[in-house]
Amino acid sequence: MSLGPITKPVRIAVLGAGRIGQMHAELLARRVDGATVPFVFDAVAATAEAVGARLGLAVASTIDEIMSSDQVDAVAICSSTDTHVELIEAAAAAGKAIFCEKPISLDLALVDRGLAAVRASGVPLMIGFNRRFDPTHRAVRDAVANGKVGDVHLVRISSRDPSPPPIAYIKVSGGIFLDMTIHDFDMARYVTGSEIVSVTAKGAVRVDPAIGEAGDLDTVVIVIEHANGAITTIDNSRQAVYGYDQRVEVLGSAGMVASENPLATTTLFRDASGTHQDTLPYFFLDRYVPSYVNEWHAFVDAITNGNAPPVSGNDGRAPLIAGLAAWRSYREGRTVTTAEIDDQHGGDRS
Amino acid sequence: MSLGPITKPVRIAVLGAGRIGQMHAELLARRVDGATVPFVFDAVAATAEAVGARLGLAVASTIDEIMSSDQVDAVAICSSTDTHVELIEAAAAAGKAIFCEKPISLDLALVDRGLAAVRASGVPLMIGFNRRFDPTHRAVRDAVANGKVGDVHLVRISSRDPSPPPIAYIKVSGGIFLDMTIHDFDMARYVTGSEIVSVTAKGAVRVDPAIGEAGDLDTVVIVIEHANGAITTIDNSRQAVYGYDQRVEVLGSAGMVASENPLATTTLFRDASGTHQDTLPYFFLDRYVPSYVNEWHAFVDAITNGNAPPVSGNDGRAPLIAGLAAWRSYREGRTVTTAEIDDQHGGDRS
Amino acid sequence: MSLGPITKPVRIAVLGAGRIGQMHAELLARRVDGATVPFVFDAVAATAEAVGARLGLAVASTIDEIMSSDQVDAVAICSSTDTHVELIEAAAAAGKAIFCEKPISLDLALVDRGLAAVRASGVPLMIGFNRRFDPTHRAVRDAVANGKVGDVHLVRISSRDPSPPPIAYIKVSGGIFLDMTIHDFDMARYVTGSEIVSVTAKGAVRVDPAIGEAGDLDTVVIVIEHANGAITTIDNSRQAVYGYDQRVEVLGSAGMVASENPLATTTLFRDASGTHQDTLPYFFLDRYVPSYVNEWHAFVDAITNGNAPPVSGNDGRAPLIAGLAAWRSYREGRTVTTAEIDDQHGGDRS
Amino acid sequence: MSLGPITKPVRIAVLGAGRIGQMHAELLARRVDGATVPFVFDAVAATAEAVGARLGLAVASTIDEIMSSDQVDAVAICSSTDTHVELIEAAAAAGKAIFCEKPISLDLALVDRGLAAVRASGVPLMIGFNRRFDPTHRAVRDAVANGKVGDVHLVRISSRDPSPPPIAYIKVSGGIFLDMTIHDFDMARYVTGSEIVSVTAKGAVRVDPAIGEAGDLDTVVIVIEHANGAITTIDNSRQAVYGYDQRVEVLGSAGMVASENPLATTTLFRDASGTHQDTLPYFFLDRYVPSYVNEWHAFVDAITNGNAPPVSGNDGRAPLIAGLAAWRSYREGRTVTTAEIDDQHGGDRS
Question: Which of A30, A135, A260 lies closest to B268 in CB terms?
Answer without folding.
Answer: A260
